[in-house]
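so my prof wants the structure for this chain in the tokens format not the other one, which i didnt know existed until like an hour ago. anyway here's the sequence
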Amino acid sequence: MRLALRLVGLSLFLGACTANRERAQPAPTRPCHTFSIVARDPATGELGVAVQSHWFSVGSVVPWAEAGVGAVATQSFVNPAFGPQGLALMRNGTSAPDALKALIVSDQGEAVRQLALIDAQGRVAAHTGRHCIASAAHHTGEGYSVQANMMGNDRVVPAMARAYEETKGPLAERLLAALEAAQREGGDVRGQQSAALLVVRGQATGRSWEDREVDLRVEDHATPVVELRRLYAIHQAYEHMNAGDLALEKQDLPRALAEYGRAAELYPENLEIVFWNAFTLATNDKLPESLPLFQQVFAKEDRWIELLKRLPAAGLCTEEQVRSILEGAGRR
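here's what i got, hopefully its the right format
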């Protein structure tokens, strides 16, 4: 299949070359035919990309974003260099439309490229080469662009645009809604395989690990967009756990417990979330409230008892507290 796609790409590339581009060059070698969206949230300044493709690990190739700079989706017979190059141009003050022009004008394979950029000011631009495999199109709106190629039908791009515009909530939710709408309309004519969701802050903090607010990938899955939605829910649960930890550091116990409780609601089957919720209660004079949670955890996996016994040595609780928890939970 890969060889066939490369041969198709070579044929299309050679047919697209104009008279002043007659010099042969290798065909694009990574055919990420797919649908994607780049967008900026006008309220928060967040920038994001979401993508799905019938190609392994699409998240390692198509989506690029940098806090305070912009976002890029590079696809079709993809040139991965357009990701870092596009960000570099925007980082240096080039608008998204001008950055796109700079990338495309020097690209001898532009006829088979699909590319979209958005900058930190919300300026957006997209390109769909005339030899991208049908159904191929893009649509730019206020602060976003949706693009797709090798789709099952021409309804995919309009459906993505509508879903993004009509969905409320955080940027990540709106990006996911666009992917889900594309899939409902038929999506990639070849089917499904991988997906990714990347959201960065509106302003850079100088700490790249904090600037990436959402960074999720589904590398190979029968229903990757569904799986991406599931992972996003887990991501949200752990964000509430992090907020709870921060609240504890500030000695705001009510806020911490509320955050831990919300995390448990979002991901109730995760025993770690339940365990630390119970532990926080038990070590803050709320032992009776903690015991049903500890019993729930211990009934499913004894390993959490062993972890609990190791916590006094780490200075997280006392031996007496551990004994009280185990006795109260019926585990002496």
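also thought this was worth mentioning. The two ends are 61 Å apart (CA to CA).
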